[in-house]
Specification:
alpha+beta, Rossmann fold
């Protein structure tokens, strides 16, 4: 075994990669001072495991890294390649390369044949070769004088290291230390055995109780498992029953939900329809109230016509009696004045009656139109329309007759009254014979007015009869609408109760 070469990179003065090759035998490195001869020896010592910076002529391990003003490597690496053909290293390789690397940050790396390893691995590898750390394979300047001046004991230590005896002494020392440690362990074990023996009897009793407990516990566990299985079977049966009940309840709930939705829908429809029915009901109510008001006015008119009819009947009887008994000339002036007032009253009354009849006719036609709109094309509407038309025709005929007779009589009476005023009282006395004719005329006038009043009364009675028929036929419809609304409201309340019960 010999050193074949050494490679330095970034170590001390070797900034660039440098390699020194050696042959077997003696090799000498020569050079001027400062060329790095000592740095080569320091590199060999560093790779073989030197850890002291002072031995490498530095203060810290970082001082071995190459530095210059221009460049700083940041790493130092040294590799030693040994020829292992004689298998001095206990490995199967012909060449053994040992490498050590250090960084500026302080970390170190070790390699054997480029494989990462520990410093301990390198020391064990070279421990049997005689080149390990402290074996004085490298003798520096002044070290020979130090050996010569050593004491016998120290010199023996150096010789032992050179002969490799110190290695065996170290191993023996380590073995003795291990034996002492084993003896101490055996002593502690003996003490422990004694302690264990003292506690064996209680432990045996505890073990017996533990075995009994284990047996009882196993039996209890078995019983618990059986009970659990039985309970599980019961629970499974109960679960199946509950699941069936849940399914039925779920279906019932769905049915109830559908029912609630349907009831809500019917309720909404009823609320929507009750609005229109309420409007129809209010319309019918308004019509009935208007109809009742018209009936009241018609009754008042009929009462007025009946009173006037009685007046005309009284006047007719009076004139008839006067015509039969005769009248003296002295009563002519008073009779004329009374006749004048009666005729004026007659004309005024007939005018009022005409206006009332025309108003009643108009209102009646409007009412018939409303009734027609309300009843549509029903049989009631057709019958009411026919009867109303007949009654309207009768009213028109009576009004025409009253107007025609009133105009003719009014114009003739006015002319006669004007002539009477001009001729004065003396001429009227001379024409007493005309008085009887006039009495006859007044009698005819009263008779005509009586007939007209009878016609008006008849027409008004026709109004009353037709109104009664209308009310008789319309009132059931009004009541029906009222009942429908009441029924819908009752249904809505029932739906609300059903929804409350379902929820």
């Amino acid at each position: 075994m010999y050193l074949k070469n050494i490679t330095l990179r970034g170590f001390k003065s070797f900034g660039n990669r440098s390699m020194l090759n050696f042959e077997s035998g003696i090799s000498v490195i020569v050079g001027p001072n400062g060329s790095g001869k000592s740095n080569v020896a320091d590199g060999i010592s560093w790779v073989l495991g030197e850890q002291s910076p002072k031995s490498l002529r530095g203060n810290t391990m970082g001082d071995i890294i190459f530095r210059s003003k221009k460049e700083e490597m940041g790493i130092a690496e040294v590799s030693l390649l040994f020829d292992n053909s004689d298998r001095l290293f206990d490995v199967e390789f012909r060449d053994v390369k040992i490498t050590r690397r250090v960084y500026t940050e302080g970390g170190s790396e070790y390699f054997i044949n480029s494989s990462p390893c520990r410093l301990m691995d390198i020391q064990e590898l070279i421990s049997d070769t005689g080149i390990g750390k402290g074996l004085h394979v490298i003798i520096n300047q002044g070290q020979v004088n130090e050996i010569a001046l050593l004491k016998p004991v120290e010199r023996k230590t150096v010789i032992d290291e050179a002969l490799g005896i110190s290695k065996h002494k170290n191993r023996r020392k380590k073995s003795i230390s291990k034996l002492d440690k084993v003896r101490d362990d055996i002593g502690r074990l003996d003490d422990l055995m004694d302690e264990i023996k003292r506690t064996m009897d209680p432990l045996e009793m505890e073990a017996k109780r533990a075995r009994e407990y284990s047996t009882v516990a196993n039996e209890l566990k078995s019983e618990e498992i059986s009970l659990f299985l039985n309970s599980l079977g019961s629970l499974n049966g109960l679960w199946d029953g509950q699941e069936d009940s849940y399914s039925k309840t779920k279906e019932e709930l769905k049915t109830v939900s559908d029912r609630i939705i349907e009831v809500e829908r019917q309720k909404s429809q009823l609320i929507g329809s009750i609005g229109s029915k309420q409007a129809d009901y209010e319309s019918w109510k308004t019509k009935i109230e208007a109809f009742d008001a018209g009936m009241t006015r018609l009754s008042n008119i009929m009462a007025l016509v009946d009173s006037k009819k009685n007046v005309f009947s009284t006047l007719y009887n009076m004139f008839d009696l006067e015509f039969k008994n005769g009248t003296t000339p002295e009563d002519v002036s008073a009779d004329r004045e009374a006749e004048k007032q009666k005729e004026i009253m007659d004309l005024s009354f007939l005018g009022k009656v005409i206006k009332k009849m025309e108003s009643v006719d108009r209102q009646f036609k409007i009412f018939l139109d409303k009734v027609k709109d309300a009843t549509g094309k029903s049989i009631i509407a057709k019958e009411l329309e026919i009867e109303g038309k007949v009654l309207s025709d009768e009213i028109a005929a009576v009004l025409g007759e009253i107007k025609e007779g009133n105009i003719a009589r009014g114009s003739s009476r006015v002319m006669k009254l004007d002539a009477a005023r001009k001729k004065k009282l003396e001429e009227e006395k001379k024409k007493f014979e005309l008085r009887m004719k006039k009495i006859e005329s007044l009698k005819e006038l009263c008779r005509a007015n009586l007939e007209r009043a009878s016609s008006i009364s008849k027409v008004l009675k026709g109004y009353g009869t037709l109104s009664g028929k209308i009310k008789k036929r319309l009132y059931p419809e009004y009541e029906r609408q009222k009942r429908l609304i009441s029924g819908d409201q009752a249904n809505i309340e029932r739906f609300n109760r059903d929804i409350g019960d379902l929820k």
